[in-house]
Design a protein that fits this description.
Elements (H helix, E strand, L loop, with lengths): L2 E6 L4 E5 L5 E6 L2 E5 L6 E3 L4 E3 L5 E6 L3 E6 L5 E5 L3 H12 L30
Antiparallel strand pairs: 1-8, 2-7, 2-9, 3-6, 3-8, 4-5, 4-7
Length: 126
């Protein structure tokens, strides 16, 4: 995958491997974005985006039916999975395992991503 829009059903998953610098934008619905070795998850609503800044596996989960736009300057390994609660439980366990009991490893960050991307962050409303 090098970019484009993907429609995910509720609880559908988009897995991105070694996607440093890739921007993930919520076009419709809501998304949960989690990155391997990162203690901070992101919930995105329409117009909001996040830049992947950790090496390894990043998971984008549709909290409801959602459309996600992916912007990448390079080819990224990606796969899509349809909802399956047992698979989600195994995935959540695999993602959380590195955080327990000692917490996340901070040695897995990518090089800093450029601040300016093809999209602007959503206004904060303040």
């Amino acid at each position: 995958m090098q970019g484009g829009r993907i429609t995910l059903p509720k609880e559908g998953l988009l897995a991105l491997r070694d996607a440093c610098g890739v921007q993930v934008k919520c076009v419709r619905g809501s998304l949960w974005v989690t990155q391997e070795s990162d203690g901070i998850d992101h919930v995105l609503f329409p117009g909001q985006w996040v830049t992947i800044d950790h090496k390894g596996l990043s998971i984008v989960t549709a909290l409801d039916g959602a459309t996600v736009a992916v912007s990448a300057r390079h080819r990224v390994e990606a796969s899509i999975a349809t909802p399956a609660r047992p698979a989600l439980a195994r995935l959540a366990d695999a993602i959380m395992r590195p955080f327990l009991p000692s917490g996340p490893s901070h040695g897995n960050r990518c090089a800093p991503a450029p601040q300016q991307g093809p999209w602007q962050p959503a206004p904060s409303g303040r």
